[in-house]
């Protein structure tokens, strides 16, 4: 077998040769060439008697064509955790293909949180990134955002002021996810970034580059820069990211704006760009108690960034992130912003299209039929990495986007990676062509490709569990209690000061009403929890592949998590009843005992699979990096036990969360006995919770 192509297509040729050697014993001549199409990502495969001709509009489309041929001709399937090949080699299979994408931009975000290796992209080695970028091409994605922290860009932008070594020393003043001590060194992270960008360029993948007011928790300003340049800051009325390293520089001052763009220029000069830039604006922050004044500042910021970008990179496009819109803006305010932005330059980058909020979303912002935008699924905050999502809601809104020529893309923009494997497949399929790829249509094909002989069993499990997992939908509306559901309560329902829980403090009437409605919805489908549990138990002994085992554990932990989550809601409502004089003592004790039982079962489950082990994560990191001693001793534990980032980590759940619930049960007993105020934790419980966290922080892995 011989592949004939130009040097530009040698990567696609090598992939063809590798795949051919796995699936066929025949001999053919293969020709790969670039040809003009109406869309440059269009491609065709034409099979002759002993020839295969592949024509593609650009380099990445040639890769798409190669992978698509082997999927259609030989049944090869591509998954983030490994490809699946047929058991036996076959003769030459003739399959003709001609296709192109519906959406121009199709991609994923890789976010800056740290935790378990599987879910956190900053923890991957160069070889693992190569595997990931190859998988992006196999699923016909064309864009990804490398959101692994921006601290390593400062020494490149300001070499006379900032030094890589500055970021390597741990900072005992930083806790939780704010502790950004690098896994190895900032210089090594910069080198890894360079390697990733080089591989992406070779594969013709798009990477948006940050610009403008990029200061955030994952992109803090180094102290050396503050001491030397003394930037002026915007004055916040919110406390989030409010230390000097986390404050946004006031870009009404030209010098501050120019310095922000020096960071962008350093990125471009060192790692390249594809003409696509990105800004978060002034996301998650408020700057005035006066709504109009606050809005005008945010609109000014978007205009200032887009105008300056146009001067620096005239042919560029700017993705305007929608995160702040979903939290703080009203529909008419977003619509008014559109009047001030240039539709030839700007694209509204909506990665909140699946929000719980039926009112404040892209359908009501004024973008449909008017202004370029991208349809995006946020799917989950950092802790929520199980199987979840309301596909009926997504598909109803996707229909609007797919039929609208102003919709330019489809992305999934989670705060984690590799959490919900089916959602990744769903995004890939619908980003290419949102026809014939509904959840109902795609699930049987997905299960056949991933689970082989157990396909029908997994399909049944998915469908039995769906009425439960579809209840888990994120919401970020800061002004409406019923729409602001941060995540499920399984992993940190007690100690969190950042996110609300039903357990602590009074329940406002609108919050209680929302909780009651959610619990009612769950109780309507409680039989689905039992039926899916029976199917999962029957399947466990039949698992034969890594993909089958991984998916089984993901589904079972998602099922058990739902039981715990709604148990916590029920407990919170009962506590609220108790505070208001109702006699619910027996029900409350029964409920908290049930939660402890379920948590102990979930802890045992997490302990059975290495994906959920922080000890295994640290072994993997030590093999790939020269791990920073402070990161290993302090940072990784701060990052993983903090309330925002607690997830399905065995060591945290077994060592901290379950014990916290037992302590909570003892507090509830004191409340029932009249020895403690049920409106606030007593000192005994606070002391116990702190001792559990401290013990974890002092644990070695």
Features:
8-stranded parallel β-sheet; globular; Chitobiase, domain 2; 3 domains; alpha/beta; 5-stranded mixed β-sheet; single chain; about 10% strand; about 700 residues; 13 strands; 22 helices; about 45% helix; TIM Barrel
Describe, in plain words, how this protein is organized in 3D.
It is a single chain. With 701 residues, this protein is of the alpha/beta class. The chain has three domains: 2-99, 2-Layer Sandwich (Chitobiase, domain 2); 105-326 and 334-345 and 364-373 and 402-416, TIM Barrel (Alpha-Beta Barrel); 463-612 and 649-697, no CATH class. Helices cover 47% and strands 9% of the residues. The protein has helices at 10-23, 59-74, 126-138, 154-157, 186-202, 223-229, 254-271, 291-312, 323-328, 331-338, 391-402, 421-432, 439-451, 455-469, 509-524, 526-540, 546-579, 585-606, 614-624, 629-641, 650-672, 683-697, and strands at residues 2-4, 29-34, 43-47, 51-56, 97-99, 105-110, 143-146, 209-210, 276-279, 317-321, 346-350, 373-377, 407-412. The protein has an eight-stranded parallel sheet with strand order 7-6-13-12-11-10-9-8. It has a five-stranded mixed sheet with strand order 1-2-4-3-5, covered by helices on one side. α11 (391-402) links the parallel β12 and β13. α21 packs antiparallel against α22 (683-697). The chain is globular and about 85 Å long.
